[in-house]
Design a protein that fits this description.
The protein is an alpha+beta fold and 293 residues long. The protein contains 8 helices and 9 strands.
Length: 293
């Protein structure tokens, strides 16, 4: 149980699979409990937290991160619950080991270079720092914006010790649009295939059962499921009338969705943690209201 001591464990019923990583059903992640659990306290003590609040990012390289993580018990059985976002951190390490190259090199060769995403990386080169935007966080009590990440001491000024597949890329709207459009085109970019059509279709298919959503309420509303790496709209909602759009809302104030039924890709970048004003709802409502058939 989550409030139990770290050594009060039961055996795993099965190994963790690659699909568990892609669908965030590893058995470890944010619990969103009001009080920290012993395993979450141990995670912080081991400095395993990824980018986003709280910062700074973990100082460990991938091998050391994995060694430390492996000393912790899982929070629940593999495959039992959707939990954000630790599965992606593990997935990035697995991809790097399978490819025999650092994750950032793999992403550049397989995605960023073929898609001409020139401004997407885990850090910003010094000559481009004048283009890096300041990030803010809202005080929950007053609503006033406070500095979260300034350009002068930004955590994106230097390559991270741990290139985290759970978050940490810095990019531009143009690059993000290229990525979203490639998925809208079922894996093709111009005359080049980046992903297979069936891969994109599998990505955009909900893989969660109702009983696997116990820890998802803060991240996934009732009308959302989870595919392979992306949230999937499964029911009609107040924004779009047809299910099927997929994407994600980033913790540092980004919102991206690709909607195959409307041939639409929408991207919002606010540089404010967590959309405290819920401008994201206004953005998506306006985007769909602007459709003129």
């Amino acid at each position: 149980r989550l409030d139990g001591p770290l050594d009060d464990t039961v055996p795993a019923v099965r190994p963790i699979t690659v699909r568990d990583l892609l669908t965030l059903r590893v058995g470890f992640g944010f619990t969103m409990e009001s009080d920290s659990t012993p395993v979450e306290e141990a995670e912080r003590d081991l400095q395993l937290m990824s980018l986003g609040p709280p910062k700074p990012a973990t100082p460990h390289n991938p091998d050391e991160w994995l060694r430390r993580f492996a000393t912790l018990p899982l929070m629940c059985q593999p495959g039992a619950q959707w939990m954000y976002p630790t599965g992606f951190s593990l997935l990035g390490i697995l991809v790097a080991r399978a490819a025999g190259q650092p994750l950032e090199t793999f992403l550049y060769e397989r995605l960023f270079e073929p898609l001409d995403m020139k401004d997407t990386s885990f850090s910003v080169p010094s000559p481009m720092l004048d283009r890096l935007a300041t990030a803010y966080a809202a005080d929950f009590g007053t609503g006033k914006l406070e500095l979260y990440d300034g350009v002068e001491d930004s955590q994106w000024r230097l390559p991270p010790a741990f290139p985290d597949a759970a978050g940490g890329l810095v990019s531009t709207i143009d690059d993000y649009l290229t990525f979203g459009t490639m998925l809208l085109n079922q894996g093709r970019h111009e005359n080049r295939r980046i992903l297979s059509r069936t891969s994109v279709e599998t990505m955009a298919t909900n893989h969660l059962k109702p009983e696997q959503r116990a820890y998802s309420e803060w991240f996934l509303e009732e009308n959302r499921g989870w595919g392979l790496g992306v949230s999937v709209i499964t029911e009609r909602d107040g924004v779009a009338s047809v299910p099927g759009r997929f994407g994600w809302d980033g913790g540092l104030g980004t919102s991206w969705y690709t909607d195959p039924s409307e041939g639409l890709v929408g991207i919002l970048m606010t540089q404010v943690l967590g959309f405290p004003s819920r401008i994201d709802l206004d953005f998506w409502t306006s985007a769909y209201q602007a459709i003129d058939d």
